[in-house]
Amino acid sequence: MLLEASRLLRFLIALLALSSTLSAQKVADLAISGGTVLTMNAAGDIVEDGYVAIARDRIIAIGPRTQLEKEFRPLRTIQAAGQLVMPGLINTHTHAPMSLLRGIADDLPLKEWLEKYIFPAEAKNVTADFVYWGTLLGDLEMIQSGVTTFADMYYFEDQVARATRQAGLRAVLGETWLDFPAPDNKSFDAMVSYTAQFLKQYQNDSLITPAVAPHAPFTVSPAHLMAAKELADQFHSPILIHVAETKTEDEDIKARYHASPVQHLKNIGFLEDSVVAAHCVWVDDQDIATLKAFKVGCAHNPSSNMMLASGVAPVMKMIQAGLDVGLGTDGPAGSNNDFNLFEEIDLASKLQKISLMDPKALPARQSVEMATVGGARVLNMEKEIGSLEAGKKADVIVINLNHPNEIPLYDYYAGLAYSIKGSDVDTSIIDGRIVMRHRRVLTLNEDQIFQKAREFRAKILASLKTNN
Ligand SMILES: [Zn+2]
Description:
Blueprint: H1 2-24, E1 26-33, E2 36-38, E3 46-47, E4 50-55, E5 58-64, H2 65-71, E6 72-79, E7 83-87, E8 89-94, H3 110-125, H4 128-144, E9 147-154, H5 157-167, E10 170-177, H6 188-201, E11 208-214, H7 222-234, E12 239-243, H8 247-257, H9 261-267, E13 275-279, H10 285-293, E14 297-300, H11 302-307, H12 315-320, E15 325-327, H13 341-356, H14 364-378, E16 396-400, H15 412-418, E17 425-430, E18 433-437, E19 440-441, H16 446-465
Parallel strand pairs: 1-6, 2-7, 8-9, 9-10, 10-11, 12-13, 13-14, 14-15
Antiparallel strand pairs: 1-4, 2-3, 4-5, 7-16, 16-17, 17-18, 18-19
């Protein structure tokens, strides 16, 4: 009897000790344990055998595993030993629904490509349904290649938002304005009221930041550019626009307005820090100084600039001037043709090296920064995303380092820039939610999306054979 009582007492004491340890531990929803954590923070911290604790949508702690695993009691743990844990990539310029037009017309100059093929194909085929399914296909590819945030310019942008929410991706989505009838809105008034409604609908959304996207200074008049800015300002929304992409645009704007595209935008009062300027290829020192003065961020798209032979953006000069520069894939139809930001990291560095004939130009670390923290700055989201830091949104990717192209790995930045591929990304967490695990996207039905995309191909091909 006495023996029984002392056993019971010992058991109770052990139970008490255990419960006090447990109550001292902090609860986390998710932990990523044992990986090499490349934080991309200002100090450039890399934590070997690290630990990332996540509660709801945010990172709550980062540090050595041996220390933090004692402090936290996570509901779920992702074992990441031997893997690389880093912030999700930020694609600062694309047109996601154009995935359905991938490969429809290639190897052409921008103007001919747009006017002869893309605008007519879009006029015949772009519907709300096209945009929804095209976006799902694009989202699927972006998630599988490590993108956790993207900036988009297209039509029926509410459908881009609907698909992207479903995918669980973070995005800045800009409704495109043109001076001629667009697939969704046939008049200027319709465009303004549609966009106002879209901006209203997605105010304060956790994943979607709605934006206004006047196409470019050569396709949108000064009056309409300013109307776009006014509407964006009213809703504190970003403005997405193509700027100084080609020599033809540069010459055209100079002939019409006696100023470069950047100076023209400045002269009409369009520039401000919420503007994201895609391309900025044809910019001189004065233009770079102007962009810097107005805190305009640039989205650099090396694949697109090379494929359309648009030119080489003076990225090194922009960075030296203190401009925020991010990376973008641009659209997948005739100007890339995929959404793989790892390729842009690689090409951004190599394009600067060959054009400046300097192998030291745009080193790996700088191009990786452009794809992460740099992109966050361009989108004015650096307080929330772009690096792994306690308090920031939990947008994290885990890269499997068990492929021949990743072994051995001496330098993580060089690995990311020159040998690691988008297809090496194993797991993606966005806003604290596991969106992909072991390369399976958990939010989307891959087979259904592929099937739909093939059906669209048949429809689009048939539409191009008719003349009306
Ligand atoms: Zn574009």
